[in-house]
Amino acid sequence: MIFDDRQKILIVAPHPDDEVLGCGGTIKRLSQQNNEVYVLIMSRGKKGMYSEERIHNVRCESIKAHELLGVTDTVFLDFPAPELDLVSVSELSRSISEVVKKFSPGIIFLPHRGDIHHDHKAVFNAGLVAARPGIMCPVKKVFSYETLSETELASPFGDDTFIPDFFVGITQSIESKIAAFKCFKSQIRNYPSSRSPEALEALAKLRGCSVGIPYAEAFMTIRIIEE
User: Fold this and answer.
1) Among 125, 129, 146, 208, which is disulfide-ready with 216 (CB 3.0 to 4.6 Å)?
2) Phi first, then psi: what are they for 161, rounded to 5°?
3) What pTM does this model have?
4) Residue 41's closest CA among 8, 7, 86, 10?
5) Whole-number Cα distances in Å, 191 to 146, 162, 223
6) 181 has pLDDT over 60
């Protein structure tokens, strides 16, 4: 089984709300199945572009959303958004590795490498480095998730296209996902923006219909190691 009870899972998000957009329903489902789900937020707004009040506010929104989803613990790092691509991969990966060492997750979810936002690409690459197979690495399964307003805007080339091969049913947790997203009052936009609750539900329906269930979240499998 890809998901068993009492596992440790780490969701790595470039910015607050990416984890809810991409994995909110799955997080809720996993937490209800007695798993420990941790969220790592890689960045804070770059000084001069975002006020301390705005940064504090969105982090409070994150905590509220994570409480609704049953997240075990949330870690905030202070790399500058939207300039994670200017930080060395080694520095980013070292920070992710420290969190992996702290929580010892067997599963990691990363943003899609083809997302239009350079921060997402940087976190994906750093996450792969941090999850390199080895004697000291607990990570056995790596997946990437799609983020509305980023993934669907990728260039139409093979390496950048999100092609899901793993679907998680979230029919019982779609309402929790939408409620968690609504915690991000600073990020919500009106429909037909892709950053709207309506768009979030529409994507879950689309992913669900593609595999014959009412609602789903879709992922790309990066690596699975079965010993």
Assistant:
1) 208
2) -75, 135
3) 0.96
4) 10
5) 19, 23, 35
6) yes
Alpha carbon 14 to its chain's center: 8
From start to end of the chain, where are the E strands? 8-13, 36-45, 73-81, 107-111, 141-145, 166-169, 216-224
Judged against a pLDDT cut of 80, whether residue 2 lies above it is answered with: no
List the beta strands (DSSP E) in 139-208: 141-145, 166-169
Cβ contact 162:209 at 8 Å? no
For 25-48, write each residue's pLDDT tens digit: 999 999 999 999 999 999 998 888
pLDDT at 158: 82
The pLDDT score that the predictor gives to residue 38 is 98
| Tokens at 80, concatenated | 């500058």
Q: 1 pLDDT exceeds 60?
A: no
Max CA-CA distance within the chain? 49
Write out the two tokens for 82.
């939207």
The fold adopted by the segment(s) 8-224 is Rossmann fold (3.40.50)
Across 158-174, b (16+ Cβ under 10 Å) vs e yields eebebebebbbbbeebb
CB-based burial label for 155 (10 Å; 0-12, 13-18, 19+): exposed
Closest CA to 77 of 18, 16, 145: 16
Rounded CA separation 135/127 (Å): 17
Can you list the positions of beta strands (E) in 96-165?
107-111, 141-145
Residues across the chain: 227
∠ at Cα 180 (177, 183), nearest 5°?
A: 155
